[in-house]
Amino acid sequence: MARIVIVGGGIAGTAAALALHKAGHEPVVYEAHPQSGEDIGAFMTLASNGMLALAGFDAAEAVAGIGFDVTGLSLLDEGGSELAAMPLGEHGHPLTRYRCLRRAELGAVLQAEVARQGIPLHHAARLTSFTETADTVTAHFADGTSATGELLVGADGLHSAVRSHLSPTGPGPEYAGQQVFYGYSTATPPPVTAEGLITMVRGSRVAFGYLVSPADETFWFARVPGPPAEAAERAATTPAHSRDRLVPLLRPDATPCAEIVAGTGEELMVTNALHLPPGTRWRGRRTVLIGDAAHAASPATGQGASMALEDALVLAKALRDTPEIDTALARYEHHRRPRAEQNMAASARLTASRNSNNPAPQDSQQPPTRVDEDLRRLLDWDTPLPA
Ligand SMILES: Cc1cc2nc3c(=O)[nH]c(=O)nc-3n(C[C@H](O)[C@H](O)[C@H](O)COP(=O)(O)OP(=O)(O)OC[C@H]3O[C@@H](n4cnc5c(N)ncnc54)[C@H](O)[C@@H]3O)c2cc1C
């Protein structure tokens, strides 16, 4: 049993705590935020591969209790004509269906599971640096305290302090060329759609997506190419500004998107899409990165959270099945880096194709959403990690 210091109590950090606990280790989570994880209020879709990873450490049922199922996708053009319709993911079983949920809800459920299992989670603990020896690693926090373990897991997200300390000259997050708007509207639902359907609109100027929840609330996002919003502009942006900016971009199209945005009140937010370049260093002697800290992708593929959950499960299996920590970390990276970087590349291409209005990626460049037998074995708790 190893004492494992997890930095970051978001999706990756809480998932890693649950999976490492199940593997017989002793995780302790240190989260910078004083109350809960940081949250920008957006919603997300959790894909079938993410749900399978959750099942591996017995958290799928809790997560299936929040949000709602998404079982199919309809793609519309700017004239409102359907270009394609398809079922989504492993929709036969309630625990492996895509789910749409608010990011805050997912964080809260995972933190509650951590608490329920008696795993310590310390808030207001912001890592500033760490020191490694051959056998131990010590995390140092902004309040002057420290924590020592045999392994430090950096699950501290896109702007990871663990990553910066591991690779002081390594590249940081870059702007992906789009601002992303998120909103929730309880105005009259758009003329949709079968229950559980996500409608994606290839608009003339904006990529748009929307779903209607069982409570008739419309969840929507819009991805708008252009320069990033600087900090001062972001601070001054109100929901009304965002509506005024988006509606004229959507109006020319014969789709419900402009009406959905016009009917949205205060629950409207905007963020710059950021991503990391591939090739980031993931490991030190006693340190490893997971989730966005290692491989943040722009949101286009909707796979960031699912990738973080896969990381947590595979890291726990590697540490369960391999006695030496450095060999276990190498096995983790061997199994995770190609998939995570496939997602980064697919998301970057999807974003670039939208920005330039070029065709969408070909089949070989698709995000890693398909659950094949190899992935099923990788994410199955009872199957040993392949060599
Ligand atoms: C707008 C938007 C929409 C998205 N939509 C989707 C989607 O539909 N589907 C999907 O799968 N993914 C989506 N993602 C991506 C997904 O949110 C991320 O991939 C996921 O949250 C990564 O989890 P994480 O735990 O690695 O990082 P985070 O969720 O960012 O968690 C990191 C945690 O570390 C803490 N922390 C930071 N610094 C420190 C420090 N120095 N010390 C201690 N703690 C620290 C933070 O407070 C935070 O709680 C979206 C992302 C964004 C921004």
Can you describe this structure?
The chain is of the alpha/beta class. It folds into 2 domains: 3-67 and 103-173 and 276-379, FAD/NAD(P)-binding domain (3-Layer(bba) Sandwich), CATH 3.50.50.60; 175-274, D-Amino Acid Oxidase, Chain A, domain 2. The chain is 34% helix and 25% strand. The protein has 12 helices and 18 strands. Strands 6-5-14-15-16-13-17 form a 7-stranded mixed β-sheet. Strand 14 and strand 15 form a beta hairpin. Helix 1 runs parallel beside helix 10 (304-321), helix 2 (48-56) packs parallel to helix 10 and helix 10 (304-321) packs antiparallel against helix 11. The mean pLDDT is 91. Bound molecules: flavin-adenine dinucleotide.
Structural category is alpha/beta
How many domain regions?
2
Radius of gyration: 21 Å
The second-level CATH architecture of the largest domain is 3-Layer(bba) Sandwich
CATH topology of the largest domain: FAD/NAD(P)-binding domain
Runs in which pLDDT lies below 50 for 5 or more consecutive residues are: none
> How many β-strands, per DSSP?
18
Helix content, binned percent: 25-40%
Distance between the termini: 22 Å
Principal-axes geometry comes out as: globular
Bound molecules: flavin-adenine dinucleotide
Main sheet properties: 7 strands, mixed
The top-level CATH class of the largest domain is Alpha Beta
CATH homology superfamily name of the largest domain? FAD/NAD(P)-binding domain
